[in-house]
Amino acid sequence: MNVNEQILIQTALGNLEQNTGITGNWKALKGLTDGRLIIMAGANTFNFIAEVKREVRPQHIESILRQKAQFADDLIVIAERLLPKAKAELRELRIPYLEANGNLFIKKNGTLIWIDTNPPIRIKQQTGNRAFTKTGLKVLFHFLLDESMVNYPQRKIAVDTGVSLGNIPQIIRGLKETGYLLQLNKGSYVWEDRRKLLDRWIADYETILRPTLLLGRFTFNGDYSDIRFITNQTVWGGEFAADRLTHHLRPEEYSIYTKETKQELIRNYKFMPKDDGELFAFQWFWKDHKFRENIAPYLLIYADLMINGDKRSKETAQLIFNEYLRDII
């Protein structure tokens, strides 16, 4: 558990006690979860296994459900902030949660505690872990695609991921600090819970890396199926790519990842800039491409769908995970 998560838990329990008199005891654990939380409310005592997250959006509910399947009614989610739709889903699923501001939901053993009066707060993040910066997330994307890459010589990792050599040891150190990477001996590592790491990558990709990649939004007066991209310069992501892979999703929005400039996209494909256009153009951020022609890496398509967060997108994402990602994650 890192320093920011420890601060989050202390803040949440402090606000809960100050606002309501309800107290809690925390014990960090090593393994599949972050720790154990005991909540004491009057004559009631609740024992939980806790999952700590910076922010919970609707697209994160599926990973929480996987945790719930292991711990049944004993799971509680602790977060700096839960978006309103995510909170509503958690309540519907009867999954307890605690926010940093002291908001709390527990429905267990015939007792209901629901506090939702405190406005969201932001906790100042302490910096230091380079694995989840913009550069770290790019490298981690390659590590998720190829679990053996982390054991390559660091100079080769730098070349294969397109980042400077000086970043690599710091990124690996950050992964070790967060428990996702275990060192066997000098220069040799094994992964711990890559599925949980994928969920973390998607959450941070959405908020840290993805916004910096957006070139702009466009519209297109024609059939998107007729577009032929220049090979290895632009590829489909998101809903359109998912539909090509599964035939399970009718696209409403379109995403591309490209090495081309905005001017080249306009000239080569007749895309027209539009602030609320249905086509999102993102910069191509990975070093190599060995996937189906004109389709982004399957892991990135999966991430796009999970970020969408609607039911149909999540269903399609699960199909893609089962078919293309299960063996590498």
Describe this structure in words.
The chain has helices at 3-20, 61-71, 84-92, 134-145, 154-161, 167-177, 194-213, 238-246, 262-269, 298-308, 311-325, and strands at residues 23-28, 35-41, 44-56, 75-82, 97-99, 104-108, 111-115, 181-185, 188-191, 214-219, 234-237, 254-258, 272-273, 279-283. It folds into three domains: 3-115, Trna Endonuclease, Chain: A, domain 1; 130-192, Arc Repressor Mutant, subunit A, CATH 1.10.10; 210-325, no CATH class. The longest helix is centred in the middle third of the chain and has 20 residues, at 194-213. α8 (238-246) packs across α10, α8 (238-246) packs across α11 (311-325) and α10 (298-308) packs antiparallel against α11 (311-325). The chain has 329 residues and is of the alpha+beta class.
Give the SSE layout.
Blueprint: H1 3-20, E1 23-28, E2 35-41, E3 44-56, H2 61-71, E4 75-82, H3 84-92, E5 97-99, E6 104-108, E7 111-115, H4 134-145, H5 154-161, H6 167-177, E8 181-185, E9 188-191, H7 194-213, E10 214-219, E11 234-237, H8 238-246, E12 254-258, H9 262-269, E13 272-273, E14 279-283, H10 298-308, H11 311-325
Parallel strand pairs: 3-4, 4-5, 12-14
Antiparallel strand pairs: 1-2, 2-3, 5-6, 6-7, 8-9, 10-13, 10-14, 11-12
Adjacency order of strands in the biggest sheet: 1-2-3-4-5-6-7
Summarize model confidence as the mean pLDDT.
88
Order of helices and strands: HEEEHEHEEEHHHEEHEEHEHEEHH
**Total E-strand runs:** 14
Report how far apart the termini are. 22 Å
Range of strand content: 15-25%
Keywords:
single chain; 329 residues; alpha+beta; Trna Endonuclease, Chain: A, domain 1; Arc Repressor Mutant, subunit A; seven-stranded mixed β-sheet; five-stranded mixed β-sheet; 11 helices
